[in-house]
Write a structure and sequence with these properties.
By secondary structure, the chain is an all-alpha fold. It has two domains: 32 residues, no CATH class; 277 residues, no CATH class. Helix content is 63%, strand content 2%. A two-stranded antiparallel sheet has the order 1-2. Strands 3-4 form a two-stranded antiparallel ribbon. The relative contact order is 0.15. The N terminus is likely disordered.
């Protein structure tokens, strides 16, 4: 490894070659398998979360980084005021560090998804910090926040479509669920495709952010979505042997190197489950924008990189529903002066109808599992 190579590639780049140099370390040969490193990243993220969160929560309590609750929200939420927030900052640590340790950081897809996640994490951190300092739920001005999100997404997505990262034969081809990609390709003009990809990343980042309103509501579907994309990215980028290409067998786009993103997905699953241990009702810590924005952006980038933009709308249907409910509520009120829902996003609507918070959460999780199964079915129903 070059002298200047980062520590991030140590576990994969240094340990794996040892398997060929020392007979006693031949078992390290398993590191060449993506599946092995997926398991390692998932377990590393989970263990880091379970070990570090108790200390992290105590630290947040000591420095009084408490949640700011909207006065116009459900009255039951007022009791949550002061609960430690910005827990997503540790969630990002337990997501990115295992990815750095177990993935090949020379892989451009891994570099770009980590940069996207970190960039949105900085935006979310500043937004949360302003909320806590002002003691108000406003945070960063909306236009500034959106501009920064577009800037980060445009930078990473633009780089993705430049050079030789994405194969030129499929670079601007749109893939649709349930449709044979090699029989029905839908070409788009480069500027349109890139703009669409940026929209996917930005929109999904905000969709996850809107969903993060109840204890464990957002992180549950995030874990389910990440597990689904673990399978989708692995299928899109993995060749079992010279005679068997998973992607061509399933009639989905084959994208060399994109299978490495499955390690990032595994880390997101582990980090998400570890966070859920402390975020489940009643929550000991809240995620905050520092967690929800980058997690949504990460899922959006996974969809763009693996050409599953429309499949994302299926597997992340809960996030889409939450976003649509807000749009419908705003448009209806501006045009007619009437509200469609008692409160938006829609999870608050069910709360005000009398559903207990855990009931809303678990039922949304169940729906998310069903949608994930439908998304996976698109691999075979073509």
């Amino acid at each position: 490894m070059p002298c200047g190579a980062p520590l991030a590639v140590v576990l994969y780049t240094l340990l794996y070659p040892l398997s060929t140099k020392f007979a006693a370390l031949s078992w390290l040969n398993v590191l060449r398998y993506t599946s092995t490193r997926i398991i390692a990243a998932t377990l590393t993220a989970l263990l880091l979360s379970l070990v570090l969160y108790p200390w992290f929560i105590r630290t947040l309590q000591r420095i009084q980084l408490g949640q700011v609750v909207r006065d116009d929200g459900p009255q039951s939420h007022l009791a949550k005021r002061g609960t430690p927030t910005m827990g997503g900052s540790l969630l990002l640590f337990t997501l990115i560090i295992p990815t750095l340790l177990w993935a090949d950081m020379r892989n451009p897809y891994i570099l770009l998804v980590c940069l996207t996640t970190a960039g949105y994490g900085v935006i979310g951190f500043v937004d949360d910090f302003l909320k806590v300092r002002k003691k108000h739920s406003g945070g960063m001005p909306g236009k500034v926040k959106m501009a920064l999100q577009i800037l980060v997404a445009s930078s990473t997505v633009g780089y993705l479509y430049s050079g030789d990262i994405m194969p030129s034969s499929i670079r601007y081809q749109l893939a649709l669920p349930f449709i044979d990609f090699y029989e029905y390709q839908i070409p788009l003009e480069p500027p349109i495709y890139i703009a669409f990809s940026v929209f996917v990343v930005v929109a999904f980042s905000n969709a996850v952010n809107l969903t993060d309103g109840l204890d464990g509501l957002a992180i549950g579907p995030v874990v389910i979505s990440a597990a689904t994309f673990l399978i989708l990215t692995y299928a899109a980028g993995t060749i079992i042997n010279k005679s068997f290409d998973i992607a061509h067998y399933l009639h989905i786009p084959h994208i060399p190197q994109v299978g490495e993103l499955a390690i990032y997905c595994g880390a997101m699953v582990g980090a998400g489950i570890g966070f859920l241990w402390y975020n489940t009702y009643p929550a000991s810590v809240f995620m905050g924008d520092v967690g929800s924005l980058p997690l949504g952006a990460g899922l959006g980038f996974l969809a763009v990189a693996s050409k599953n933009e429309f499949t994302l709308a299926i597997v992340g249907g809960i996030f889409v529903l939450e976003t649509v409910s807000v749009i419908v509520q705003v448009v209806s009120f501006k045009l007619t002066g009437k509200r469609v829902f008692r409160m938006a996003p829609i999870h608050h609507h069910f709360e005000l109808k009398g559903w207990a918070e855990p009931k809303v959460i678990v039922r949304f999780w169940i729906i998310s599992v069903m949608l994930a199964l439908i998304a996976l079915a698109t691999l075979k129903l073509r």
